[in-house]
Amino acid sequence: MSGNLRTLSQKVWDNHIVHEEPGAPALLYIDLHLVHEVTSPQAFQGLRERGLKVRRPDLTVATTDHSIPTTDRALPIVDPIAAKQVSQLEKNCADFGIPCYGLHSEHQGIVHVIGPELGLTQPGMTVVCGDSHTATHGAFGALAFGIGTSEVENVLASQCLLQRPSKTFRVQVNGALKRGLSSKDIILALIAQIGIGGGTASVLEYSGSAIRALDMEARMTICNMSIEAGARAGLIAPDDHTFNYLHGRPFAPKDAAWDEAVARWKQLPTDDGAKFDREVIIDADALEPMITWGTNPGMGVAISEPVPEPAGIADPLERESVTKALAYMGLEGGKPILGHAVNVVFIGSCTNSRISDLRIAAGVLKGRKVNPKLRVMVVPGSMEVKRQAEAEGLDRVFREAGCDWREPGCSMCIAMNGDQLQPGEYSVSTSNRNFEGRQGKGGRTFLASPLTAAATALTGVVTDVRTIL
Questions:
Q1: Model pLDDT for residues 294-314, shown as the tens digit of each residue
Q2: Among the three residues 128, 148, 163, which one is the final residue of a domain in this structure?
Q3: First-to-last CA distance in the chain?
Q4: What is the average pLDDT across 204-231?
Q5: Which of 85, 114, 246, 444 lies at a CB distance of 3.0 to 4.6 Å from 37, suitable for a disulfide?
Q6: Is residue 168 left, alpha or beta, with left meaning phi > 0 and alpha meaning psi from -120 to 50?
Q7: From CA 353, how far away is CA 136, in angstroms rounded?
Q8: Is 447 helix (H, G, I), strand (E, B) or coil?
């Protein structure tokens, strides 16, 4: 690739090749390894059994997020498996010399929230974590992807990983979002358009005026859900938004090193004329609030549209898939999803638990009361987000509206520690997955933006936020 016009992902890839041979995976250097309590225990045990140390503890950072309760931290963890995972991570990190933002750390939070907010995530990096939504960090122009447990062990031991290059796929989003829409609607619209396999073996690179207009937290939402389109990663070229966000954060470069870093980062954007394997164009002006109706994130529609009617689908496999999803969700084909009653609203997850997400949700809820029949959970993505929200009085807005204001963690996104749906219950959720049982056995999930979630919390039924604003 060197010497040719290159895309952003190709530049980052080229900069990290340690060794490659024709026909074989390349050995790639990893700049940042993020670790949490669920996918790391076996990896650390493997190191112990082989008598190995962590190669670069200074490039490894751990936090507890998946198994940690979002209830009062002064209380013990009731779930014995969760308690074991949380304590084991802290022991493993102490044994191997890795910084750990554990149960009582002031920086504890969801791994994909604390990486950026601490300035650990930077443009041009390779970032890995034993978690599929590592693509979040691509918002900074980092090549970031999830890895399996055996790969976690490999990176801990060597700081390298065997990988094959991905295809390139540009998603151009032109125009501007209208009132009542957010970046969550962009990514749900994309996945509905290209399907959950549309990005397979590719790195999605997002560009266009609508993307450039987004702040960093909105960009993280889009990159976070790239994996739901089957992509290996999602990327957005670094620009002034990126540099302004990072400047002054704890682990960002300082003084002269900052100026050198910015000069280096400015070389990363895709070269003019570079070719992509595939391209898609989305008109942001034409988008409506999106919501999923089925059992994968590609089963989504504009909120004013009906759910699909299986009888009108020619492809027999697709027809069967839609029929099965509608049966699980208890929905009737061809009928609107708007006005459908729900039981729970969840505002949180690594997709939508940042301060900007909480601000826009609070903006809808301020001075109003949520439907008393609903359980409405608001879960900040980190201790830092929680402190900021409380400093701004957002927690009071949520509490006065009748919401449950929680401690940071993954929570209902993965149905942990009692934060879950009961069989047959419906939720409008700002998380990233709506698979069968994802938020609790027999639970039914509608994925949507924080704006749509907040509007639904007020009425108790799936609601178009534009009717409330």
A1: 999 999 999 999 999 999 999
A2: 163
A3: 49
A4: 98
A5: 85
A6: beta
A7: 13
A8: strand
